[in-house]
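If your schedule permits, I should be very grateful for your opinion on a structural question. What I wish to show you is a protein chain and, alongside it, a tokenised description of its three-dimensional fold. Would you kindly read the sequence against the tokens and tell me how you understand this chain to fold? Here, with my thanks, is the record as I have it:

===
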Amino acid sequence: MKTILQVSRRATRTHNFHSIAGFVQREGLFRQQQRKFITSAVEEDEMGKDKDKVSYQLKVPKGTKDWEGKDMVIRDKIFGSITDVFKRHGAVTIDTPVFELKEILAGKYGEDSKLIYDLADQGGELCSLRYDLTVPFARWLAMNSSIQNIKRYHIAKVYRRDQPAMTKGRMREFYQCDFDIAGTYDPMLPDAEIIRITCEIFESLGWQGRYTIKINHRKILDGIFQVCGVPTDKLRTISSAVDKLDKSPWEEVRKEMTGEKGLDAEVADRIGEYVVRKGGRDLLDELHQDEKLMANESAKAGLADMDLLFTYLKSFSVLERVSLDMSLARGLDYYTGVIYEVITEGSAPQTQEGQKLQSAGKKESKTNKHASNIDGEEDRSNDPTVGVGSVAAGGRYDNLVSMFSGKQQIPCVGISFGVDRIFSITKQRLASDASAAPIRTNEVDVFVMAFGGKGFDGLLPQRMEVAKRLWDAGVKAEFSWKVKPKLPQQFKAAEVNGVPFAVILGDDELAAGKCKIKEMGLPEGHPEKDGVLIEMARLEQEVKSRIGRQGGTAALSDGVDGMSLDEAAKVARKTG
């Protein structure tokens, strides 16, 4: 019995041992699997987080740029000068959407229509970013039939899928400043005023005659093509080829006419005799003596317009700025009369070698379309074959409004200024003059300072009170946002921003009802180098008097207005 009990107990202990061991083993396996599951879940979670992270390449799209600092100052000055001239001539401004219905823009830009940015179809209206401001203006006139005449200006961004050359102002997003005269008037009077406005703008920018207004007439050009034997269905496409003569030699343009456009070689040669000619009143007189041209109704009408225009331009004292250029065609389809472009020294490719490279590049691009597409995505700022191009252009477009309205015809003439190209040339001219004063990035006229000895508390309430008085008087002023600023740091803040005057407060001076006003930058030995004491009661009058004597806010005058660009151009002419 005992043996049986002992065996039974031993068997029970063995069973219990195996049961415990099994449990421990199973528990260990469970915990191991649990750890694997947790580890796997964590890894998957981390991988999920990594997938959610987006790696950004911080850059702006090709052909665009951010504007800041001195560039903004120069550009705003250009805007201001242009707007002042527009307003001087009685213009009012409008604004239109940055995108238009695709059908509104279609068929208005000839071969350049391929440069239009089409927006993705969102299941509604098909739209495109505006290519210029002229077609939206014509659409606006057609929608507002009660307006039969207007002088309008419009400053806004436009968009083109062009090959960018950023430092030369050739961009995909850029500003245009448009001035247009709509309405029925006696011939050539609005056209002459447009040319006068153009000259006023470039003179106000300090270009001092360093520009040329190339001018032609679509009717003269069409008459030349007809006399030379160009088929009617090829007039516009041959016109677009001729328009490339400012960038390519005649041999290249002729090859395009005969090879790509299918024009007879003899017809192309007859065209070449005309389109290489340029001049002034003398060329106009020569064309009047051309019997074949005068027998063509289109050419005869165009020459009569130009004769009248030249008479008006002489009255406006701007005839010397104009060059009759028979190669000017303006590729846009909507022009019907006078056409013009403004060029300057940076408009063409930089060198003759650059022009040769440009010609070679065109040949290569035609044999390698893939390479051409890649090049179109690159910034060509350092490409010697690329110039700034025209800085302003326009013409007469008498039929564009009726294309939208279907009935009412409102004759129009206008011009568009390429601000980014004007900016590019302006900046280059400024950079070429080492003696040019630095351009200020703000317009503050007075920096309010304070100083004191032992126990100096910063005079913050007093500085704030003086700044308030100056602001109330219309004076642009700043002060340090420190309770107890040190005087050297205050002077440095003023000097960095080019602030022309400092109002300096001190305990003793304030107790006597006075403060000190100091003109910054005076040379050593100047009697007012350390400033002049003035009565606090006359603070505003004294400050405004001194600002007035210095010529007002010098935000850009020190850099652009002050040198009027002509000093900078002296260097540009030497190096150009």
In short: Residues 1-5, 11-21, 350-376, 552-576 have pLDDT under 50 and may be disordered. The first helix runs from residue 2 to 52. DSSP finds 22 helices and 16 strands in the chain. The radius of gyration is 36 Å.
